[in-house]
Amino acid sequence: MPKLNLNRVEMPRQDPKERAHNFNEVALGYSEEQALEEANRCIQCPKRPCVDGCPVSVDIPDFIAALREGDMPKAVRALKGKNSLPGICGRVCPQESQCEEACTLNKRAAPVAIGRLERYVADWERTHPEELGGPDEPPPEPTGKRVAVVGSGPAGLTVAADLARLGHDVTMFEALHVAGGVLMYGIPEFRLPKDIVQGEVNYVKSLGVDLVLDAVIGKIDTIDELLGNGYDAVFLGTGAGLPMFMNLPGENLCGIYSANEFLTRTNLMKAYLYPEYDTPLGMGKRVAVIGGGNVAMDSARCALRLGAKEVYVVYRRSEAEMPARREEVENAMEEGIIFKFLTNPTGFLGDGRGWVSAMECIQMELGEPDDSGRRRPVPIAGSDFVIKVDTVVVALGTTPNPLIASTTPGLETTRRGTVVADESTGKTVKDCVWAGGDIVTGAATVISAMGAGKRAAADIDRFLKG
Ligand SMILES: Cc1cc2nc3c(=O)[nH]c(=O)nc-3n(C[C@H](O)[C@H](O)[C@H](O)COP(=O)(O)OP(=O)(O)OC[C@H]3O[C@@H](n4cnc5c(N)ncnc54)[C@H](O)[C@@H]3O)c2cc1C
């Protein structure tokens, strides 16, 4: 038996100096040789802890075994049996805290690079459509039941795919002019190319799901109207798209964006393709991004690519507490983003013409742990200072848009505006209505939204079949 390589096969990436000025994908994916070498590190342990570590229980050892046998169509089937969006998950899932953390190898070596292998298999499928053969299963018997899925992010796409596979007649309503949710309007092209998202949306449509774009539910139809118009069940997957601000003096100055607006203009409205697309996005030379999550990393890296000379990430805790994926923090550092840890903004100063010109800050230190288990940041008296900036992006989190809750009598919501739903089934307290993803949890992850979608689809199916 060959000796186990303790290190995973590195995935090639664009050079940091080059990629800091373009929107092409940073990670370049494995070659066939690299994928096989990495797949051969999997020891196919009988306990399969990686499957338990995956919120949608992908049969990870099976797709890896098929990959190393060279049977790629079988690898695709094993992967897509549980996950309709593998090209997306292979790129943005926090595998390091899920399947890869659970990997048996992780006890004594680097875990198998499951995410990179997932991406390899999904990309192979996309580029080899002719080799896949026909559909693996016969089309389902139509049940005659109709389901409305509201929102086409990862939660909505997963519910729609699972219910269509079970023979239900599914219509997915999306407020925007394209489907995909945050995958399209939030996560930038250099982390998740949009043709990959659209490829996976098209796969869901190919299962028979009807997609209605530009349809703001709560305005064109309420949930009760959908139920009255012949839908037997409704799934709410409208995410958490309402940005939070700090309510600091000067926060209304021009040049201060919410991360949602900044990323939507950049990605969905394609400001990054200027001059082909002339989307206005006033981008200064000195940019401060406030926050420490994936949204802050994406905003900072977009600002750099859009021409900013100095980009600061301002975060009130230390590097160890940052919620962003480690890999993305390292990518941002390599690209030249400047991190100001233990720093909290206290106000914004204007240039006298209504535009932001500086940000007032205070230095912080870490005190006792708070409710989140992380050490609480405490201001250090007298440590105030000013950073000169001409653009600020506030990336401090989001809550659900109140439209659905305010137009749906009988739906229970929390103080944070999230919809109350049973964790194991997604059932809300309102008859015939389920919910899942960020609208229930608040801003979370793609795979947790998909997991919620899977559980809700199973429960909706049980309900529809009586
Ligand atoms: C910039 C950014 C980076 C991120 N990076 C990562 C990452 O690297 N890894 C990761 O796992 N997660 C990441 N996340 C989080 C992840 O994207 C979300 O948790 C996930 O997309 C939530 O899925 P969802 O289906 O619940 O909602 P969403 O993706 O928000 O989709 C909801 C959809 O519903 C639509 N909608 C809203 N209201 C209505 C209405 N009234 N009628 C019809 N349609 C409506 C919206 O337009 C949207 O398309 C990131 C989030 C952001 C913002």
Compact summary:
Helices cover 33% and strands 16% of the residues.
Primary descriptors:
binds flavin-adenine dinucleotide; alpha/beta; five-stranded parallel sheet; 16% strand; 466 residues; globular
Report on this model:
This protein is of the alpha/beta class. Helix content is 33%, strand content 16%. The chain is built from 18 helices and 16 strands. Flavin-adenine dinucleotide is lined by residues 92-94, 150-156, 173-176, 181-182, 186-187, 215-218, 237-239, 241, 263, 294-295, 298, 325, 401, 403-404, 437-439, 443-447, 449. The site of flavin-adenine dinucleotide has 43 residues, from helix 9, helix 14, helix 16, helix 17 and helix 18.
